Every structure is written in C-alpha cells, then in structure tokens.
Amino acid sequence: MQLERSLCELQEELARVQSSSHTKLDEANALVDGIEEKSSTVNKKLLDAEAKLVEVNQKNEELDMKLREMEVRESLLQKEHLSVATEYGPCSNFYKYF
Question: Do the beta carbons of residue 86 and residue 92 sit within 8 Å?
Fold first, then answer.
C-alpha cells in the first residue's frame, strides 16, 4: 500500500517536473526567437550603416578632389595675378579690374 502511494507520488512529481521542464523550454525557445529577431534587426542596421559609410566616404573623396582642384586653380590665379602685376607695374590702371 505504501509502496503504491510512493509510486503514485513519484509519478505525480515526474509529471510536475516534466510540465515545468516543458514550460521552461518553451520560455527559453521564446527568448532564443526574440534574440534571433533582435540580432537580425541589428545586422540589417549594421549593413545599412556600412552602406551609408561607403556613400559618405565616396562623397568625401569627391569633395577632397574638388578642393584640390580649387586649390590648384587658386594657385594658378595667384601666379597669373602676380605675373600681371609684375608686368604692368604698381602704377598701372590694370588693377582696377581686380
């Protein structure tokens, strides 16, 4: 009789443990799913950020090239101005055009 009761109690305990284990496993799986979803979102944002960085770097290179071109033009204009100033002298009316 007592053995039967103990067996019955063990079966009930086993059923509770199994139920608890299934519940915890379901919760763990839900956490994993949530983490995978967040990871996917983060990876997408990272790819978007990398694409924007590539675009910014390209624009930066374009602007650097334009700046160098402007500096070269400015240098040439300064040389031409100096050449004209030297050629026509300080008393020339030529300066009124600059």
Answer: no
Q: Domain range spanning residue 29?
A: 2-97
Interval 36-46 mean pLDDT: 98
Residue 19, amino acid: S
Asked whether 31 and 23 are in contact (CB, 8 A), the reply is no
The structural domain count of the chain equals 1
Angstrom CA distances, 38 to 31, 32, 42, 43, 84, stand at: 10, 10, 6, 9, 68
DSSP for 27-65, written as a single string? HHHHHHHHHHHHHHHHHHHHHHHHHHHHHHHHHHHHHHH
Distance CA 26, CA 18 (A): 12
Q: What is the mean pLDDT of the chain?
A: 90
